[in-house]
């Protein structure tokens, strides 16, 4: 995991200096080192490194056998298999870095190299007069691009590196690549993403696919931990990871991390139960509401968004990531993506039919790079911590998205559990009484959105604060001040105003998509706005 900047065009010393200066704004993404490669008149590559694989080597930009230069943000999980293939054609990887295979693959296969990758990535590669920029299929790693006044093309991991250098910029779309001669094109386009029918998946394979996805993401040469909210998704990942780690070493110590506003927060109580069941070394972090409100500017600067659910959830994750970094842990596994894949949010109860539910899950997965995975990446990388998301493994995702939508429709719960249960299919896949992965109370726990689970008073406090600092007259004139993405509530106004101060102009504002739940009368993004929510 790292921060990258690439500039292509008429690159002179001034452009290179501007790129190198902009890279310092990404230092939080790569606190372990920096690198620069330049070819006057055509390209400059800047890199900030978070050393995960082969910390002693693997400095970037990395060069291939024939002189290609690459900068990479992400992880290539199949890099060892790729390195063996490359060795067969005389291309020898000299480090243990997963990024090195990209340089050799690009030299050998050109833009088709992306099709061989199993992992998450945003990378730029240069070879002779040609260059390639590519982003992973779901956009788990962030990437933006724009042009400066001279027409040079810039790419960067975060908006803050472009805001002073480009006159226009936008989100680089996931599953796309761009080349010097071919421009921008989509390279990842499975049938499910196109909305086309195909072979219906077998739900009995979900458990093995997810276990395989977790095992891939245990790849690390530095300490690794688990984000554990006590919800179904993070708890499943924690349970699978703990089993896999202890299968390798029965005495291995596994660290789990949870956060809340007080000891009785819903997530902390549930995470405590899971940690005890799994036998992890568990860490509980408490944060004060007033400290969260005071951190709003820092949060918006790091996550680069004014979307309400993104801000609400990013603040506790930001504080938790700081604590995790201070414990010496650089990599964490997380449960993002499952709600979008399986229709886990409570508003999915209102889908009129399975086809409507299917379309919504596709839309939510396709836009994860603008919501949950953006939050997960930027709020953890603010402190140099890498979040890995097994639910978005392509093999698991292709299976899960090919399942019949009727199987994902919320239905009556099992005996003894009140209400209706979301993600019934996923729960059933892991409900093994003979060999339980989790306590039944956690396996069947109600969906609790992260910003609610840290303590019901957290979202209420944010609303109250906003209503205190935004006057009714300011809100009434919001459309005059913000004609694009006009805020409709005091809370939305606070976030929009602070974002505009940090990232002025409509180009920046258009890089954000605001999310609201469909089909329910109350459009607030808190899960408690849904009538099916049980609790205060």
Written overview of the protein:
This protein has about 525 residues and is of the alpha+beta class. Helix content is about 35%, strand content about 15%. Strands 2-3-1-9-8-10 form a six-stranded antiparallel β-sheet, with helices on one face. It has a six-stranded antiparallel β-sheet with strand order 4-5-6-7-11-12, with helices on one face. A five-stranded parallel β-sheet has the order 15-14-13-16-17, with helices on both faces. The relative contact order is 0.11. Pathway: Amino-acid biosynthesis. Its EC number is 6.3.5.4.
**Which value, in Å, is the CA radius of gyration?**
23 Å
N-to-C terminal Cα separation, in Å? 39 Å
**Share of helix among residues?**
25-40%
> How would a crystallographer describe the biggest sheet?
6 strands, antiparallel
| Structure summary, number of beta strands | 19
Any idea what the shape is?
globular
Tell me the layout of helices and strands.
Elements: E1 2-8, H1 13-23, E2 34-39, E3 43-49, E4 62-63, E5 69-76, H2 79-88, H3 100-109, E6 119-127, E7 130-135, E8 144-147, E9 153-156, E10 168-171, E11 176-179, E12 183-186, H4 206-216, E13 224-227, H5 232-248, E14 255-260, H6 266-278, E15 281-286, H7 289-294, H8 296-303, H9 308-326, E16 331-333, H10 338-342, H11 354-366, H12 372-381, E17 386-388, H13 394-401, E18 411-412, E19 420-421, H14 424-429, H15 440-443, H16 450-453, H17 456-469, H18 472-476, H19 478-481, H20 490-502, H21 506-509
Parallel strand pairs: 13-14, 13-16, 14-15, 16-17
Antiparallel strand pairs: 1-3, 1-9, 2-3, 4-5, 5-6, 6-7, 7-11, 8-9, 8-10, 11-12, 18-19
Helix pairs in contact: 2-3, 4-5, 4-13, 8-9, 8-20, 9-12, 17-20
């Amino acid at each position: 995991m790292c921060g990258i900047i690439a500039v292509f065009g008429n690159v002179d010393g001034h452009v290179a200096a501007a790129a190198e200066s902009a890279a310092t704004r990404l230092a939080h993404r790569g606190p372990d080192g920096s690198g620069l490669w330049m070819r006057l008149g055509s390209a400059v590559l800047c890199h900030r490194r978070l050393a995960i694989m082969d910390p002693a080597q693997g400095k970037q930009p990395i060069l291939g056998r024939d002189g290609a230069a690459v900068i990479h943000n992400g992880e290539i999980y199949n890099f060892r298999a790729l390195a063996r293939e490359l060795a067969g054609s005389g291309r020898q990887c000299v480090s243990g870095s997963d990024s090195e295979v990209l340089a050799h693959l690009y030299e050998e296969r050109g833009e088709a190299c992306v099709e061989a990758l199993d992992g998450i990535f945003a990378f730029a590669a240069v070879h002779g007069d040609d260059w390639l920029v590519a982003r992973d299929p779901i956009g788990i790693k962030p990437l933006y691009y724009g042009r400066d006044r001279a027409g040079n093309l810039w790419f960067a991991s975060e908006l803050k590196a472009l805001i002073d250098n480009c006159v226009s910029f936008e989100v680089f779309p996931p599953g796309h690549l761009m080349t010097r001669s071919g421009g921008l094109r989509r390279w990842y386009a499975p049938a499910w993403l196109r909305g086309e029918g195909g072979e219906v998946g077998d739900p009995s394979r979900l458990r093995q696919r997810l276990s395989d996805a977790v095992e891939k993401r245990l790849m690390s040469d530095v300490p690794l931990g688990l984000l554990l909210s006590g919800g179904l998704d993070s708890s499943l990942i924690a349970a699978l990871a703990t089993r896999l780690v202890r299968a390798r070493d029965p005495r291995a110590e596994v660290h789990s991390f949870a956060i809340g506003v007080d000891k009785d927060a819903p997530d902390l109580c549930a995470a405590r139960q899971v940690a005890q069941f799994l036998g992890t070394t568990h860490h509980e972090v408490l944060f004060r509401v007033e400290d969260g409100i005071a951190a709003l500017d820092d949060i918006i600067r790091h996550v680069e968004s004014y979307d309400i659910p993104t801000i609400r959830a990013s603040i506790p994750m930001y504080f938790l990531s700081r604590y995790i970094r201070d414990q010496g842990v650089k990599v964490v596994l997380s449960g993002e993506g499952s709600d979008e894949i399986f229709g886990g949010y409570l508003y999915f109860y209102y889908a009129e039919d399975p086809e409507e539910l299917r379309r919504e899950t596709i839309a939510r997965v396709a836009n994860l790079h603008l919501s949950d995975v953006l939050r997960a990446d930027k709020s953890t990388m603010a402190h140099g911590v890498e979040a890995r998301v097994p639910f978005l493994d392509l093999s698991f995702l292709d299976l899960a998205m090919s399942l019949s939508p009727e199987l994902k429709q919320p239905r009556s719960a099992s005996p003894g559990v009140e209400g209706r249960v979301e993600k019934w299919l996923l729960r059933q896949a892991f409900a093994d009484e003979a060999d339980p992965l989790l306590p039944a109370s956690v396996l069947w726990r109600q969906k609790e959105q992260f910003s609610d689970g840290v303590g019901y008073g957290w979202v209420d406090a944010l609303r109250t604060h906003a209503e205190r600092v935004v006057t009714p007259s300011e809100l009434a004139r919001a459309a005059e001040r913000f004609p694009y993405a006009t805020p409709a509530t005091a809370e939305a106004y606070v976030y929009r105003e602070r974002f505009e101060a940090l990232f002025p102009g409509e180009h920046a504002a258009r890089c954000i998509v605001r999310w609201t739940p469909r089909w329910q009368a109350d459009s607030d993004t808190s899960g408690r706005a849904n009538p099916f929510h049980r609790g205060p």
